[in-house]
Write a structure and sequence with these properties.
This protein is mainly beta. It has two helices and nine strands. Strands 3-4-8-7-6-5 form a six-stranded antiparallel beta sheet, with no helix packed on it. Strands 2-1-9 form a three-stranded antiparallel beta sheet, with no helix packed on it. The structure holds fe (iii) ion (FE). The site of fe (iii) ion has 8 residues, from loops.
């Protein structure tokens, strides 16, 4: 059964709710995962699905956690977002449809060329166990 809006409000903090369910954006450099460099996996703060991993994280200087690719191609869904007078590609969790951020074509050229610009509050970090 899909999670109801009421259940999301109960499950998430108000800040997480505004990002994941209302496509909000946290202030740049505000998120605890922006500068995280430890080994591990970033999971969806809404549903727990593994979405990104530290091996694909890079310092974009943008103030948001940045990855050159998702954990798996099917981990995230993308769609065109014309809000705020811009045309961007929105990134959502493929499992719970939570808003994560946007993907831009200005990532590291030596790898994928993509920059997944993700709100820290939409992610939980699971450190590698070893
Ligand atoms: Fe999710």
């Amino acid at each position: 059964m899909p999670t109801t809006d009421e259940q999301w409000r109960e499950r998430l903090t108000p800040e997480q709710y505004s990002i994941l369910r209302k496509a909000g954006t946290e202030p740049a450099f505000s998120g605890e995962h922006n500068s995280t460099k430890a080994d591990g996996v970033f999971t969806c703060a809404g549903c727990g699905e593994p979405l990104f991993e530290s091996d694909h994280k890079f310092d974009s200087g943008s103030g948001w956690p940045s990855f050159d690719r998702p954990l798996a191609e099917q981990s995230v869904a993308t769609e065109t977002d014309n809000s705020h007078g811009m045309t961007r590609t929105e990134v959502r969790c493929a499992k719970c449809d939570g808003h994560l951020g946007h993907v831009f074509p200005d990532g590291p050229r030596e790898t994928t060329g993509a920059r997944f610009c993700i709100n820290s509050l939409s992610l939980d970090f699971k450190p590698a166990s070893d």
